Amino acid sequence: MNAGRDAQAAATERALARAHGLANAFLASLAERAVSRAPSPDEMAAALDEPLPETGSDPAAVVDEWFERAERGITASPGPRFFGFVTGGVTPAALAGDWLASAIDQNAGLWASSPAAAQTELVVLRWLKELFGLPVEWAGALTSGATMANLVGLIAARQWAGRRLGFDAAAEGLAGHSPIVVVASTEIHLSAVKCLGTLGLGRKQVRKASAPGGSVDIAALATLLRDIDGPVIIVGNAAEVNSGHFDDIAALADLRDSHPGGAWLHVDGAFGLFASASPRLAHLTRGIERADSVASDAHKWLNVPYDSGFAFVRDGAILREAFAASGAYVVGSGGWDPFTHVPEMSRRFRGLAAWCALKAFGREGYRALVERCVDHAAAFARWVEATPDVELMNPAPLNIVCFRIVREGCGKAATDELNRLAVRAIQEDGRAFVTGTIWNGQAAIRAAFDNWQTTLDDVAMLQAAVKDVATSLTP
């Protein structure tokens, strides 16, 4: 018997039991609890800020104390009425897998550190390619989300472009070499722009074509490409984040193929890639199998816990070249080393939650989930069109509805302010959570539908909250 270890085991068991109890109670409350209480920064600082403790505390008591102090700031984002941003829920299998991943605490960076984690990730990547109809031979890796997935795709694109220009971008850097040109639409997502800045390609250097209605104007993009002599990186959307409209990916691939200097097509499919999982919606992503790289989120429509995403790259060799690194203590082990495909050396075992989610739902489960969410978005869009004082800003082809509250005789500035107030009022109301945006220069409201638990009753609660706020607010 080891008294010290017995005490540690007992403390661990108590802490896990308390966390399990708090988690179960929270999950059971999701259908009824306020989605947000909209606390102020000062309120949250008062609740949580304190000096570093000088001595320790019982682990179970620590968990209990944090939850009690932080609860006002915990949104019901895994719940069925969180329509803000593009936020999925967490399926039971995914949650269980994530809990287990924390308990077994595997480093998913190298095969040697966890053969189970590395092989699980390989299986998940193959399943995802099968789900979306992507070529099975493509390389890929799990990431922290679509932002990091965009970074993976774009760093491979940068490496390819550097090679076309006669240098090794990863080894030599960009200084002193010809600039690498990037073209996209005006609806390029901020995460892709952030990645371009991180990679030294320049946030302000993107040449943008117009995107009327959210989809890139192919003729305008072709005009941009005609003025570029050398290699170019094309960034396409599947789909844009304000109303879910897709670029014509097949047409982008045609432009890529015909560009004399060579081109790399990267597709940001953070949530839109999931249209490929539905025969009814797959036409929206036509041509995506012709891309050179694709980025997507798993914590959106796959409904696994934060954080999780994935990237696929056609040319595995150029991807590995971009991330090449060696050290005396990093010894090859004969299996797949994920760190050769991503920036991190050490990584959380995200593959377990994704494996459990895909195994539990299967292809048919995700097809049904995607189609159900799209049907919910369509139902809400129809309600918006039929409701006085509410206006649809753009058709909703997928799962995002962009709308605004209007008043007869109200000018642009007053209408914009009305909608900014409406977003806050809906969030404070607690029945549903939405987020604001700017569409065609006008303040608007977005509702995104991608949670596995959402029903038409939840859509009706969103409608009631919007209607009540629209009626009560004064411009």
From TrEMBL:
One of its GO terms (molecular function) is carboxy-lyase activity. The modification N6-(pyridoxal phosphate)lysine is found at K300. Signal peptide: none annotated. Keywords: Decarboxylase, Lyase, Pyridoxal phosphate. The keyword Lyase applies. Its cofactor is pyridoxal 5'-phosphate. It comes from the Bacteria. Gene3D superfamilies: Aspartate Aminotransferase, domain 1, Type I PLP-dependent aspartate aminotransferase-like (Major domain). It holds the Pfam family Pyridoxal_deC. GO terms for biological process: amino acid metabolic process; carboxylic acid metabolic process. Belongs to the group II decarboxylase family. PANTHER family: GROUP II PYRIDOXAL-5-PHOSPHATE DECARBOXYLASE (PTHR11999), MIP05841P (PTHR11999:SF70). This is Pyridoxal-dependent decarboxylase. The lineage of its organism: Bacteria, Pseudomonadati, Pseudomonadota, Betaproteobacteria, Candidatus Accumulibacter.
